[in-house]
Specification:
Structural class: alpha+beta
Strand content: 25-35%
Shape: elongated
Distance between the termini: 56 Å
């Protein structure tokens, strides 16, 4: 190494480094022929969701993003056939050095690192048509004495014992992942001959590297003792032990390992082509179970990796067609190459001690991240942006949409004379009420026609909607004890039992106790005939009254007992749950009668995360959660092609830090906490850990009037997002109860490229500006028959919102 940049030379005595490497005494001349490169240890901290953004596309899996980076490298490597490039995989972490993650256990983070490194070794070069790139699995070699990447008898052997872990086996100490002497010696002994093989293969010389494969012949039934096998595992139902072997064949060699040794002597082979997990790999299974009558062997079927849980079914001797939690974990670990703690998988399957095979396979696929590529789910590519339109103006407050837009609902029965592609109408709430009598008649409701949207650089050039019903104070006299920063939702529903009604939910920022939150009015705003108020079960009032939308009738009838409305809220600070909450309810009795005021309506829980009032930790929360998140709208998406998704719209905190306090005049990257607050952690890093001590110093004093913003939850960055959930992974989705890990968004769509971002500079003290702009998105609504999504962008023109439109195919 030569001191061209200074980056390769460590200064002697510098405590930050563990050693010192001197330069060569003589310059050998010429360019290097072989280029070795390796990621550092933090790249072995693989979370399911990276805490960074790439091309405005958050929530990409860590493997997907890393794959893209390495695939891009190949485009250069293929132009330099005069060089041999050798990738050294990132070494493993110790369990203590692997940080806590609010969504994932440390074990699953380490398993993700192995999954990515397996991809590098086994799949990355599968379509690369040259021999000038190779991989040494440094990670694997350092995780167990029986794990190898080496040359044996002229063949490359890549072996991973299924009994090994995914953490560093040879660390300096429990807090230092760097390999000790034994680890260095093992890795060196395996790497040097392997590098020689890579080099000679590249140069076209000898020795050549043979790549053996496993026989793909079909398995045959075996008879042992008095037990005759007929395609089922342990038909006698009396297994006491088992023996399981598997082998993996790729272009890089054969891996054969033993998972558990029993006393059986007969072995049957089962071949499995792993579809959807590791294309091109062939797994070779051998299983024997021992019972009191001898050895029984099973199954001549071909299994996919994650349905291989069936291999483990009934090994414990039961005859109920179910498997134990331990069996499911072992199946995931061996058949999918993923280690997962019992607690994680137990959460996926609701902690049931014995589960059906179909349920087990779904849970295993969920942990492996394979379920959300299904054709039945709406994908980001299905969203086509169509443009936006303005809302009309009637007069001064409260007869204006300025400082409104917190509730909106689509009316399929409105504007029936419209013959264009945008049928129906929208009910939209206007200017919010203000407390202390300042504006007691706010939150009036109007109905507007839907014009053909347009794309325009200036919001003044957008088409304008027209009134069907002008502003009406339809909620006059209702919810008068909740007028300070109202949180409101509404949904039009024309059900045969009730006729056309607008269902209402209502709360406020600081929620009063025992304040009923739901009701309905007539769709004729001049004669609202309010009915209510009701509670949603006994749920936390901070989690029920921020948004409201309808549930497809067929789904509600099948899974939710005819509850056709979904209501919920996500209050910043996590007091209603650390992620969007959602409950299904039906507010009418038989024949459409309204319940008595104060009734607690029966509900079904769809989404509900841990409440910040219950724990100081950021745990059991939505993936990527921050206390500054704001989810203000939602919709249940179904498309004519049969796809579906549960959608939330809002302003997502995506910064590296978030805090309770104020904006910092030094810039968005600097917190400014309220130093008077000491009863909770007021500043956190994106991963949920507390900020460094210096971040709690504050930067202003609100009582002195020298703060540049209103007080609240802030982040170093916000983004307008649509997030998508699988309806089958909600609390009662698809006929089963799901644990907390089921509630994970499978995709997110960044909306910022379509927004106008307050060009008139309205109320920057309250809403912020630049990357710290809050309250970007208001209510959302969906026209199911036309596949049109409407989302309100707040504070576009002197406080007035505009409506953005997407077509979902």
């Amino acid at each position: 190494m030569y001191n061209e940049t200074g980056q390769n030379v460590h200064t002697p005595g510098d405590w930050r480094f563990f050693g010192y490497w001197s330069l060569l005494s003589v310059n050998p001349g010429g360019e290097n022929e072989i280029i070795l490169f390796k990621s550092c240890f933090p790249n072995s901290i693989c979370t399911a969701v990276l805490k960074i953004r790439l091309l405005h596309r958050p929530m990409m899996s860590s493997v997907s993003l890393r794959e893209a980076v390495y695939n891009n490298l190949l485009t250069y490597f293929q132009t330099r056939q005069d060089k041999l490039f050798v990738v050294i995989t990132a070494p493993p972490q110790t369990e203590n050095e692997c940080p806590e993650d609010p969504e994932l256990s440390k074990a699953l983070q380490a398993a993700n690192a192995r999954a990515f490194n397996n991809w590098l070794v086994n799949d990355w070069l599968g379509g690369y048509g040259h021999n000038n790139v190779a991989v040494f699995d440094y990670f694997n070699v350092l995780t167990h004495p029986d794990n190898h990447h080496r040359v044996v008898s002229g063949s490359i052997e890549h072996v991973t014992s299924p009994l090994s872990g995914n953490f560093a086996y040879y660390p300096n100490n429990e807090w230092d992942s760097h390999p000790n002497t034994a680890g260095h010696q093992k890795a060196t002994a395996e790497f040097v001959p392997l590098l020689n093989a890579f080099y000679n293969t590249w140069k076209g010389g000898s020795p050549s590297i043979s790549k053996p494969s496993v026989s793909t012949g079909s398995a045959s039934a075996v008879t042992s003792g008095s037990a005759t096998l007929n395609g089922t595992v342990n038909p006698n139902g009396a297994a006491t032990n088992y023996h399981f072997e598997y082998g993996l064949t790729t272009a890089y060699g054969t891996n054969t390992s033993t998972a558990s040794a029993g006393s059986g002597t007969g072995i049957v082979s089962v071949n499995a082509n792993i579809s959807g997990l590791s294309a091109g790999m062939t797994y070779h299974y051998r299983l024997a179970a021992v019972n009191s009558e001898g050895t029984t062997l099973g199954s001549d079927q071909t299994f996919t990796a994650l349905s291989a849980a069936v291999v483990f079914g009934n090994i414990d001797g039961s005859a109920d067609g179910k498997i134990t939690l331990a069996d499911a974990i072992l199946a995931l670990r061996i058949c999918a190459g993923i280690s997962v703690s019992g607690a994680v998988l137990a959460a996926e399957i609701s902690g049931d001690s014995r589960i059906g095979l179909a349920e087990a396979v779904y849970a295993l696929r969920e942990v492996a991240g394979l379920n959300h590529t299904a054709q039945g789910l709406v994908q980001p590519s299905d969203f086509q942006y169509l443009g936006a339109f303005r809302l009309p103006e009637q007069g001064e407050r409260p007869l204006t949409f300025a400082y409104g837009g917190n509730a909106m609902s689509f009316n399929p029965d409105g504007d029936l004379s419209n013959s264009d592609a945008y049928p129906g109408s929208l009910f939209v709430m206007g200017h919010d009420r203000l407390p202390y009598g300042d504006l007691p008649d706010g939150n009036q409701i109007a109905e507007v026609r839907i014009p053909v949207p347009a794309i325009a650089a200036n919001p003044a050039d957008l088409p304008e909607a027209g009134f069907i019903q002008t502003f009406h104070n339809a909620l006059q006299g209702q919810f008068t004890d909740m007028e300070e920063i109202p949180k409101v939702g509404m949904q039009y529903l024309n059900h045969p039992d009730t006729g056309p009604k607008i269902h209402i939910c209502w709360g406020q920022h600081l929620q009063p106790e025992n304040a009923a939150s739901h009701g309905w009015i007539s769709a004729n705003l001049s004669a609202p005939d309010f009915q209510g108020t009701w509670f949603v079960g006994n749920q936390n009032l901070y989690s029920v009254n921020g948004y409201l939308f309808d549930i497809p009738a067929a789904w509600a009838d099948t899974h939710l007992g005819g509850r056709y409305l979904a209501t919920g809220r996500m209050r910043d600070g996590g007091q209603g749950g650390m992620g969007p909450a959602l409950f299904a309810y039906r507010p009418w009795l038989s024949r459409g009668a309204a319940p008595a005021s104060g009734t607690h309506l029966e509900e079904k829980v769809l989404l509900l995360y841990e409440n910040a009032d219950s724990t100081e930790e950021i745990i059991r929360c939505m993936q990527g959660y921050q206390h500054a998140d704001e989810w203000e709208g939602g919709a249940w998406i179904t498309t004519p092609s049969g796809k579906s998704a549960l959608l939330f719209a809002g302003t997502k905190a995506t910064g590296t830090k978030y805090w309770y306090g104020f904006r910092n005049p030094a810039g968005p990257n600097f917190p400014c906490v309220d130093t008077h607050i000491t009863d909770f952690t007021t500043c956190r890093n994106a991963d949920g850990s507390p900020c460094p001590a210096e971040d709690f110093a504050g930067c202003c004093d609100e009582s002195a009037g020298n703060c540049i913003s209103d007080r609240g939850w802030w982040s170093t960055r916000f983004d307008a997002q649509l997030i998508l959930f699988d309806p089958c992974r909600t609390g009662t989705g698809c006929g089963r109860n799901h644990g907390i890990l089921a509630a994970r968004p499978y995709a997110a769509i960044d909306m910022d490229e379509h927004l106008y971002f307050n060009p008139s500079g309205t109320d920057l003290v309250m809403i912020g500006e630049g990357v710290q702009r809050r309250y970007r998105i208001g209510a959302a609504e969906y026209d199911r028959s036309s596949g049109l999504l409407y989302v309100l962008e707040l504070f576009v023109d002197e406080g007035k919102p505009v409506v953005h439109v997407w077509k979902i195919g």
